[in-house]
């Protein structure tokens, strides 16, 4: 497979994943470009064409983490995760506003955002995430639980305050 075919077949998926990680179109475009530049330089490492998407996502994750190391991270302990304030009834996935979801994702520390996007966007198991990120499975579970709690609380608060113009839109988070 050559790079032109690789870009044609996977650009949209790579850009979509990059946008979910970065939350900004310009950053997603830059990250997508970096992914395909790195892929072009290492196209010989792609042994199985059927795993091209996974290979590109792996490059994307590494580039994203490298990019976020340049920014000052927000510790997860600073996130307001008051479980008592979460209403009993979560909204349907169809009711979640994509823009509100992206704003909530942007508030997460990069490591938590990475786990959420790998779990929902790539549909990786806990074990796969742990292996790909080289962290213990308990760390994956903890990060995902904290991230989901933050996303729920943020999205429900926006809905309750009337800030979120929730209108039957699909989102990556379903619970």
Describe it.
The protein has 175 residues and is an all-alpha fold. It is built from 7 helices and no strands. Helix 1 packs antiparallel against helix 2 (25-41) and helix 1 (3-22) packs across helix 3 (52-69). The termini are far apart.
Which secondary structure elements does this structure contain, and how are they paired or packed?
Layout: H1 3-22, H2 25-41, H3 52-69, H4 98-107, H5 110-120, H6 126-133, H7 137-161
Helix pairs in contact: 1-2, 1-3, 2-3, 4-7, 5-7, 6-7
Shape assignment? globular
Strand % is under 5%
The CA-CA distance between the termini, in Å, is: 38 Å
Beta-strand segment tally: 0
**Helical content, roughly?**
55-70%
Number of helical regions: 7
Low-confidence stretches: 163-175
Please state the oligomeric state of the protein chains shown: single chain
How would you sum up this structure in a few lines?
This protein has 175 residues and is mostly helical.
Task: Name a few traits of the molecule.
175 residues; mainly alpha; 62% helix; disordered C terminus
């Amino acid at each position: 497979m050559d790079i032109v075919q690789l870009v044609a077949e996977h650009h949209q998926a790579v850009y979509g994943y990059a946008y979910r990680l970065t939350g900004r179109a310009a950053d997603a475009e830059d990250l997508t470009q970096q992914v395909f530049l790195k892929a072009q330089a290492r196209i010989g490492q792609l042994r199985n064409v059927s795993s091209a998407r996974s290979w590109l996502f792996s490059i994307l994750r590494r580039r994203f983490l490298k990019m976020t190391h340049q920014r000052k991270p927000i510790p997860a302990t600073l996130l307001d995760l008051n479980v008592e304030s979460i209403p009993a009834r979560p909204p349907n996935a169809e009711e979640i506003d994509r823009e509100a979801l992206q704003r909530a994702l942007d508030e997460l520390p990069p490591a938590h955002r990475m786990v959420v996007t790998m779990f929902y966007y790539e549909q990786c198991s806990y074990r796969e995430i742990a292996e790909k990120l080289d962290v213990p499975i308990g760390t994956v579970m903890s990060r995902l639980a904290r991230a989901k709690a933050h996303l729920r609380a943020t999205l429900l608060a926006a809905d309750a305050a009337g800030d979120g113009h929730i209108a039957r839109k699909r989102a990556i988070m379903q619970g």
